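Training component of the fellowship. As part of building independent skills, the fellow (R.M.) carried out the full modelling exercise for a liganded target. The chosen ligand was NAP. The inputs are recorded below so that the supervisory panel can assess the work.
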Amino acid sequence: MITIIVAADQNNLIGKKGTDNGMPWHNSEDFKHFRSTTLNHTLLMGKTTYQAIGKPLPKRHTIVLSHNFEDDRVEVVDDLVGTIKAFKERGEDLFISGGASVYKQALPYCDQILLSRIPGDYTGETYFPDFSEYNYRLVEEKPFETFTLEIYQK
Ligand SMILES: NC(=O)c1ccc[n+]([C@@H]2O[C@H](COP(=O)([O-])OP(=O)(O)OC[C@H]3O[C@@H](n4cnc5c(N)ncnc54)[C@H](OP(=O)(O)O)[C@@H]3O)[C@@H](O)[C@H]2O)c1
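Fellow's submitted model of the complex:
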């Protein structure tokens, strides 16, 4: 399954420049959810997101999308659609982990969106793209203590 995993506030804000990891908030419960969901799987993320995190996340294979980047701790690719198709053909799980530009390009090819809805109205400059045209349906809302997990499937 190809899954978009994202955390967004009530206005779909996802990113803020200048914070220690690029996120507009600190939500440890959501980090735990991200970790347990993606552990031992592969993450695909844009170069800006990877650089905001600063290092590969432990116990996960990290693929970074870039036209011009080298880091021997991760796999670097410049073909988003080809990478997604290869995972689909092998029946392997892939977690699309942002940022906005990668979500936007990946939305037509994914099966599922796991959106952690962080309550409140934060400041930042990067937003999750509108996905109303891609036929994702909200199939479940799972309440956590500090956020609600919205699960959308095609
Ligand atoms: N709240 C969340 O769940 C969440 C999750 C992830 C990220 N974020 C936030 O989102 C923000 C970053 O988003 P962003 O849109 O600015 O950047 P991004 O998508 O993380 O990275 C953009 C870069 O990725 C590379 N790239 C993108 N598409 C490509 C393609 N098709 N082929 C080759 N390279 C490609 C390009 O690198 P080159 O210029 O090197 O070619 C591009 O400059 C940060 O604030 C981050 O913290 C939030």
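The panel noted the following from the submitted structure. The mean pLDDT is 97. Helices lie at 28-38, 47-53, 80-90, 100-106.
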